[in-house]
Amino acid sequence: MKKSYLVILIITFCSLSHGQSIRGWGGKVGVNILKEDWNHSFEYYYIGIAKPFPGINAVIFIECQYNPTFLFVVEAAYTKSRINLESNSTIAHPDCSCIFGDWVSKKSSLDISILGKIKSEQNIFSPYLLIGPSISFTLENTTTGYYSLPFNDNRNIYDEISRLRIGIKVGAGTEVEFQTLNLLFEIIFQKEINNLYETDELKISSSSWNFRFGFLL
């Protein structure tokens, strides 16, 4: 499934780029806020807060143009993020009393995406919308502490997290003309389609917000 998705992404890029002019290239940098949702299949008593810490998002991209209104953007993004969980929780399970250990998860990934861009041409400010598929490759995933499940004491869930993820991005922004380049301000929401981790006991999904500033030459 994931390999097929990557092939489709490459074919889509080749099809869209055929016969189209490259409008320009540029870079973006900003803040990444990662969120993880943990869905359990067993009952438990839990007191704790998962705290996402602001990470970084650095992007290089090229932009191709069909016409002044419709374009598409090919991005390669490096993302570094962090999540802390502080808890004093015990799972209520008839055969096992398991503890949520406090942990810190640090991640970095490479993200490739192809985004359709619909732009409204204005004098100085040109607002636009972005939407398209993405595929992410985990480069680093380090964790201190552990999360334990019934019958699996001291098991580190993050050792088994999927390293290849597919998703979709939706966002909005504006271009601002400044001398010989365009400045970009945008906000992007990214939702992973496949779960990071999935068993009968636990499913972990993720999403993120990116607030970015950049330039287009």
Summarize the structure.
By secondary structure, this protein is mainly beta.
Polypeptide structure, described:
The chain has 217 residues and is mainly beta. The chain has a single domain, classed as Porin. It is 7% helix and 63% strand. It contains one helix and nine strands. The chain has one helix spanning 2-17, and strands at residues 21-40, 48-65, 70-87, 103-119, 125-144, 164-178, 181-192, 197-198, 202-216. Strands 1-2-3-4-5-6-7-9 form an eight-stranded antiparallel barrel. The model is unreliable at 44-48 and 89-99 (pLDDT under 50).
Secondary structure elements and their pairing?
Elements: H1 2-17, E1 21-40, E2 48-65, E3 70-87, E4 103-119, E5 125-144, E6 164-178, E7 181-192, E8 197-198, E9 202-216
Antiparallel strand pairs: 1-2, 1-9, 2-3, 3-4, 4-5, 5-6, 6-7, 7-9, 8-9
